[in-house]
Amino acid sequence: MAFDRLILKIVLDFLVLACVSIPLLVIHLVAEPYHRGYFDDDVSLMLPYKPQTVSEGLLAGVGFAVMVVTIIIVEVVRNKQGKGIGDKFLSGNLVPGWLWESYTSIGIFTFGAACQQLTVNSAKYVIGRLRPHFFDLCQPVPTNSTSSNTMGYYQDFTCVGVNADAARMKDMRLSFPSAHSSFAMYTAVFFILFIQVKGKWRGSKLLRHGIQFAVLIGAWYVGLSRVVDHMHHWSDVAVGFAVGALCGVVVFIFVLKPKKYGPPVPWETAQAEILPRPVLSR
Fold first, then answer.
1. How far apart are CA 129 and CA 119, in angstroms?
2. Which of 185, 186, 183 is nearest to 121 (CA)?
3. What are the coiled-coil residue ranges (predicted)?
């Protein structure tokens, strides 16, 4: 019965993950963003088109690699310290406790990442905000003279830019909020909380906090690069950071449930090794 429950848990995990991932895939493949118009004197949309510093593939690869490696290392160390769970039996095979805990934590992180991406991408398609390089990439031409109101707002237009292919025209309308910033901050917050709660060791007082700060700076850089690359307005990045941070906190506290691991133990108060008392002779 024990291994049957484990198999059922794995199947349910993948079903829940699919329920979040499939709508995200459908949005990317089928949905069309809202066709927002523009003001002909909007200088925030007149920045030049630039290639991305951090691509989606690079960000996702580095983010998942960092979390997977970190989770496995922490669980192996906890297991050697006697703080891990016992071994499990799955289909008659013995599964080390650290491996099962790693699977659970990686699965929860992946689920949270999918929820976070579904949140920001659904907003992208509903809002349809134009990117800062709109004029340079699209070079819009109003379809008729009646499409402009007294404020110079054009709703209907045609893109005649040299690089105005279908994929770029769709991506041009997905500025708000920044999915890069959201995923980077989600990963950073989850990483920081994970090693703060589960990464208990004796050693340098600043090592853990230094690593946490380095990851946070990495997420901060990703967000700033989106503004520098003219892919997002600063408000897109700010909202992306907020959504990612909120998702990271909620997923860690309410899904991973860190209370079962106990509060983090400072290195100064960690239990010292018990040494035999010296025998004193008179």
1. 16
2. 183
3. none
